[in-house]
């Protein structure tokens, strides 16, 4: 850590420099123009903007938007150490929690203790998906890659052999967060199947 | 625009897809590891996180953090059309306002009218830098590339022949936003000069 006159600020700056590494964590999703893989930092910005604009579709009592955005800004920082686990990767998910817990301790631990506790609490809240804010945050976090997959004609679905039932299961938090957004997801998935971006059923085995 | 059953949602989704292009707008700043240029979308995430953590250094009465973050999430969207204007590019600045006004009308205009007005108001507030929230947002927007330049041993300063007085001038909103952050900036600039990352004076002409 590089020391500055103010000890507290030194830790904050050190953490913010560490956070820069999230820009180099690549996701499976392509940018909508197909030019390259998306990274987790720009994804975090996109879903925060999405929360700001789609928050109106949450039924009353609405989740606190400001809190939703805080959850979204910090929720993926653990990927700096733990990497991005593909949403449909069962094997990767088996040790995801352990890897991410260790990452959270190290990365948030760079901050002054009280802020480390605060960010840790936000991250745990997001992961537990129990508060209305965490549910809404999870909903936009899942809606965004859906739009990317749709706009890239199912690039990541096709490449990984994903079928509609799997995507629908992954989108469950959206049903919980907003009936209107859930209806949109169903419409989009139907159109994706109709256009051949997404398979409706797993291919039958021929052996 | 692709139409969905819900007309309002169609416009929102269209806007959010347009926003994806901000990930392809490159800034002069390198990532802290020097691996590539930073893009404006990930920059927007980074400064939002920065606002969350450094907000405590604003003196009382503190700016509203949630509003600061909203300003930061939307403030650079106009760059999708207008491009990133380098902070020290006097020529680029001469028509910056005109280019960005046109961009704001087109891009925000994709949204439903009431939301277009809301985002336009946020963008204008950021640009005018008159409210305490806009001043604090401008402060983190300027502090972040300073850290990047410092961590990359003055890459963008050296490449563009920038000297300390120019950087100090650019950092004025930080003095307005937080004496503590302003003191940190002075300390950092002195260290940057001592280490040869940043020139103290313009080179004397030898002709």
Which sequence of SSEs, written as H and E, runs from N to C of chain A? HEEHHHHHHHHHHH
> CATH superfamily of chain A, called what?
Hypothetical protein af1432
Number of DSSP helical runs of chain A = 12
Largest interface: A-B, 51 and 51 residues
Helix content of chain A: 55-70%
Category from helices, strands and their pairing of chain A: mainly alpha
CATH architecture of chain A: Orthogonal Bundle
The largest sheet of chain A is: 2 strands, antiparallel
Low-confidence region ranges of chain A: none
| Beta-strand segment tally of chain A | 2
**Largest beta sheet of chain A: what is the strand line-up?**
1-2
Query: How many domains of chain A, as an integer?
Result: 1
Kindly describe this structure:
The structure is a homodimer of 207-residue chains. The mean pLDDT of chain A is 95. Chain A is built from 12 helices and 2 strands. Chain A has a two-stranded antiparallel sheet. Chain A has helices at residues 7-19, 40-54, 65-74, 79-82, 90-94, 96-108, 113-128, 132-151, 155-159, 164-170, 172-177, 179-194, and strands spanning 26-30, 37-39. Chain A has 207 residues and is mainly α. At the A-B interface, helix 1, helix 2, helix 3, helix 8 and helix 12 of A face helix 1, helix 2, helix 3, helix 8 and helix 12 of B.
